[in-house]
Amino acid sequence: RGDSARRGRQQGEITLLRDAWVAVEGGKIAAVGQGQPVPEAGDTLLDAGGRLMTPGLVDAHTHLIFGGFRPDEFGWRLRGESYMSIMERGGGIQSTVNATREASEDELVEKAQWFIDRMSEMGVTTVEAKSGYGLDSDTELKMLNAIERLACKTGQRAEVVATFLGAHAVPREYAGRTGEYVDLIINEMLPRFKGKAKCCDVFCEKNVFELEDSRRLLEAAAAMGYSLKLHADEIVTLGGGELSASLGALSADHLLHVSDEGVKAMAEAGVVATLLPLTAFALKEPYAPARKFIEAGAAVALATDLNPGSCFSGSIPLTIALACIYMKMTVEETITALTLNGAAALGMADRIGSIEPGKRGDFVMLGCDNYNVLPYYVGMNCVKTTIFDGRIVAENP
Prior knowledge:
14 strands; 397 residues
């Protein structure tokens, strides 16, 4: 329950109502109760048959708008090449940038819709989508326009929330001139995209956008009204966690190599730690320290990081299993991380993320009455029905 992230030990405190009912009117939750509901004339009644229903799931970090694919790079990594070495040889993000610049807006929308449909089947009712594979003003706009079309599509299965990530990598044409590219983002892209994206993100990493350039860009974005997010401390311990705290960011994400000081600073500042176990799994990297964050009193969210390179997966079931088995999160903490705390990481906890009157009618109905099946079905989907905005949008056998 609540309109803000659940922090520390409170993250594991969830309310289980048995013999419960929920009334939805106009897409919003009107009432929640227990016992026999009394439908009014004209109401539609959906009998869950004793199954468990949770809030709709929030995937608060994805890169689902992109051109092309990169399966060859996966093979390179299997042979021992690092993420950064692949980038240095012209692969990685630049490879997808080239394909995205060539793709039409219609192609980007069609590909992303396929992913959204699959996410909906796994219970996702809100998904964040980043730009960042354009790295020039026109292609970044094309990506944001594609996200806007998905968000406004009639009968959509989930809400799609745009984040501007022009600082995803330094484009080839600005090699060795990172500061000039940051100037371009600040002076041209940020003003142009105001209103197109809710948040501004930056890949704050050694030899990409280091602390000084990341701070300069994010401070400019905040001054223009963007909420702030960071890819932080993913490859090395750089201080991205501390930077996110000093800027009052909504979230810092990845955090595989966050320092103890960064954990403490984020907890004190109320920055959500959005952890992405699928990426650590795919890159064979150590998992982010979820227990450190929770024990420090921070809020932890989970997301898939679906992208064409380091993590070509939007699997919510595997995300849950990895969080519980390898990151030592409890099932209750994991549910909160994928609902209310995911909503908070997008600045939306007042509208979604829990089953309370006034919030949107987003629900996931499992195939049974026990939420412990979520990690128990390792990598398998146990969602029976997904309801978004009061509408059934996905049903599984």
